[in-house]
Amino acid sequence: MASRVVETTGKPTLVLNINDAGTQAKGSGRSVAAYHLFNSLAPSKELMTHFGGHHMAVGLTMPTDNIEAVHQAMEEAAKTQLADQTKPPLEISARLEPSDLTLDHYQELRQLAPFGPGNPEPTFEVKPQAIQDVRQIGQGGNHLKMKVDNGVDVIGFGFGELAPALTAPSQTKLAVHLDENTWKNQTKLQLMLKDMQVVQPQVIDYRLPKLSAEQFHTSKTYVFFDVRVKKNSNNGSNSVAQPR
């Protein structure tokens, strides 16, 4: 979970589980290259009962009363280490065709595991030929679920707001990790969405009390709701006239 948050936000992250009594928090952290997570938290190790790790990952346990102090230690370190840090770019390993989206290919890929620093999990580009069953899921509809091509499930944590834009597969590119999901004793390929590009036509509203020829000097597709206005514009670009 911490890794997924880092991939989405580009920020170092701790994910902690609090015990039933509410007294102890235990979890792990993941980081980005510009932020040395272990060194950032080491000065506060007296606040923790267990602590260990390295540049990109830590494991820790602490009283819940100390969570805010540890958080502030991370914030102080970030002021210098992440002053100019942006979300890291995704490196695309290869483009996958619909025929490549199989459970067999996922299982072959797992032979390269374990993934982590020095051996990052491959990210693939997928340009779907079909997109179906687009839904916003989770609390507040924050997450995205859909199917592409031969019914392959795609899950995107934090991508829920993009659901309305996913209507034209020809204009969509996905960056994904290959994964699997087991449901009712059936295991299928699942794609974990890491990023996406949605290219949509730009619509410009040129409606004014009076039109001039200068408005139509560029090569675009114009839509007129009055045939007479279309004739008066006398432009050489593509145009479509719709009755009023």
Report on this model:
This protein is of the alpha+beta class. The protein is 17% helix and 34% strand. The chain contains five helices and 13 strands. The strands form three sheets. The chain has a seven-stranded mixed sheet. Strands 1-2-4-3 form a four-stranded antiparallel sheet, with helices on one face. A two-stranded parallel ribbon has the order 12-13. The protein is extended and about 80 Å long. The protein starts with a helix and ends with a strand. 17% of the residues are buried.
Keywords:
disordered C terminus, 5 helices, 244 residues, single chain, alpha+beta
Short précis:
This protein is α+β, with helices and mostly antiparallel strands and about 240 residues long. It is built from 5 helices and 13 strands.
